[in-house]
Write a structure and sequence with these properties.
two-stranded antiparallel sheet; 19 helices; mainly alpha; 545 residues
Length: 545
């Protein structure tokens, strides 16, 4: 049931969005759509009941040729490119206008921070400064916003609203300039700041600079709004796009007519009366054009235009509260509930816990490496784990790894392993890695893996050595010299890869190392060993040993 209600809610939300009238495409295009359908219907009726029934068939053929020509014109016309580029330019300009709206918050905060004095003089100075800032914004709003202009059509309206005094109105009106005078309150602001600096209400020159810098940023925003209202998108560009769009659909009124199916024209195999897809195309493209026209001036009175009157009310309320009611208000300090908590676990409501997310660890956080890939090339003796731990590597340095410590499971211990000698070193002897390195013959220019100072990865075997190791009889003759051919045949492996000898005999190297793999399954380095019959003992090299 909850899923069904959720689906019903989503479907209802889509319906409300689709059939909303305010600021909708229907409200924007209903006149244009009716005109297009009326013209299309008139041409269709003329073709069906006047031209087609005429005595001379030449009129019908001529109309159909014109319709096909108009259809070919609409098929190659780049309407999407023309409209798309135009709407992109207009939308970018619309967003830049929104970011150019001046907000007095930073200026107000600096005035409240640097203009000191809790007496009546300090209060009047702070209120006058923020009032100048808001008056400058209202004067620039009156230039481009119809809503603000209708609210404050004259300076006297500003006086009655309490934003301007009568003396200030007379000063502005007497200025010998025909240009917009939204910058005058900013000049009053600078003069007052300089005066209070002389009175000692501002502590330092850097504080004065900070206040003036924020005022300059505020005035720059006002200048940007003035420029956007003055310089618009070139009229020629707008005319080209508008003429192209409407001429395209004028051709559609003829080219999208359903012609006589008996004439066997391409694409006219059936007859309809209502051009459904053509109407949808009209809504898309003409609606696109209308959106661009509305975004051209977002300070108008359309449904989606900026509510500049609300911005005026909000800025005045915020400014006076910050420098008057909230000035010099001290809130007693007290420890917060999380003062002794290093990691704060903020609570969630039942509605918000369902959408609780996890911290993003990065796109490469799921990369996993094997222990072999995590080994440094110059540190082969160290193995790193995913838990940021380092474990020692190598079977040679593993303690208690003697063969005599393993039990076969039938109550008796295995015999000692046969000697496996390589380069005059007994590799099966239970000695440490350093001892083995000391016994290894080495030369000053030797770069093999036996080098003591800087151990390097094992050297790759030559082809001759690999071929020798692949020969099972030659390999055993190296370890067991003097054995008879009958003993060699007894050691031949069966089809499973294991020796055919019985249990009561000395193990060969193949059997010994296979048993080592089976009996060391508890070791962390041999957790996934393969069965005995799958071990290729003949191809073992120094790196495995």
């Amino acid at each position: 049931m909850p899923i069904a209600r959720l689906q019903k809610f989503k479907l209802g939300g889509f319906a409300r969005l689709l059939f909303c009238w305010k600021a909708s495409v229907y409200k924007l295009l209903w006149r244009e759509v009716l005109c297009f359908l009326a013209l299309y219907t008139v041409i269709s009726l003329l073709y069906r009941y006047v031209i087609s029934t005429a005595m001379d068939a030449h009129f019908k053929t001529t109309f159909e040729e014109v319709a096909l020509y108009a259809y070919n014109y609409t098929a190659v016309f780049p309407i999407s490119f023309v409209l798309g580029f135009y709407v992109t330019v207009v939308f970018d300009r619309w967003w830049m206008q929104f970011k150019a709206i001046p907000w007095p918050d930073r200026v107000v905060n600096n005035v409240s921070a640097h203009i000191t004095g809790a007496n009546e003089r300090g209060r009047l100075v702070r209120r006058a400064l923020v009032r100048y800032v808001n008056l400058s914004a209202i004067l620039i709003y009156r230039i481009g916003s119809k809503r603000v202009r209708k609210r404050f059509p004259t300076f006297q309206h500003l006086v009655e609203a309490g934003v301007m005094t009568k003396r200030e109105k007379e000063v502005i009106k007497k200025l010998p300039s025909d240009n917009p005078k939204y910058w005058v309150p900013c000049t009053w602001f600078v003069n007052l700041v300089r005066q209070v600096k002389k009175e000692g209400m501002i502590d330092s020159d850097p504080a004065v600079k900070t206040i003036i810098d924020e005022l300059n940023n505020f005035q720059n925003k006002c200048d940007e709004l003035y420029g956007f209202d003055w310089i618009i998108v070139p009229l020629v560009y707008t005319q080209v796009v508008t003429i192209a769009t409407y001429s395209y659909f004028l051709a559609c009124t003829v080219g999208r007519q359903y012609l006589d199916p008996t004439a066997n024209y391409d694409g006219h195999t059936f007859d309809l009366y209502f051009p459904g897809f053509t109407v949808l195309e009209f809504v898309f493209y003409v609606g696109w054009l209308k959106v661009a026209e509305n975004l051209m001036n977002p300070f108008g009175e359309d449904d989606d235009d900026f509510d500049m009157n609300w911005i005026v009310d909000r800025n005045l309320e915020m400014s006076f509260l910050a420098v008057d009611d909230l000035y010099d208000t001290e809130i007693p300090l007290e420890p917060d509930p999380h003062i002794d908590v290093h990691t704060i676990d903020m609570p969630y409501t039942n509605a918000s816990i369902k959408k609780k997310g996890k911290a993003w660890q990065g796109s490469a956080s799921k990369v996993r490496l094997s222990r072999k890939d995590m080994v440094f090339t110059n540190m082969p003796e160290k193995i790193f784990t995913e838990d940021d731990e380092i474990i020692s590597s190598g079977l040679l340095s593993k303690p208690n790894n003697s063969y005599s410590n393993h039990n076969t499971g039938n109550g008796r211990q295995n015999p000692p392993p046969p000697a496996y000698i390589e380069n005059e070193v007994n590799l099966t002897e239970n000695r440490s890695h350093q001892e083995l390195l000391q016994d290894t013959p080495n030369s000053p220019n030797d770069n093999t893996w036996h080098k003591r100072d800087s151990p390097t990865p094992p050297k790759r075997l030559s082809h001759s050595t690999q071929a020798r190791r692949r020969s099972p009889k030659g390999h055993r003759r190296k370890v067991y010299r003097g054995r008879t051919p009958a003993m060699e045949e007894a050691d031949e492996p069966d089809e499973g890869g294991c020796s055919q000898r019985g249990d009561d005999h000395d193990p060969t190297p193949r059997e010994y190392y296979a048993q080592q793999g089976r009996q060391s399954s508890g070791d962390s380095d041999f957790n996934n060993l393969i069965p005995c019959k799958d071990i290729d003992i003949d191809n073992l090299n120094e790196s495995v040993i």
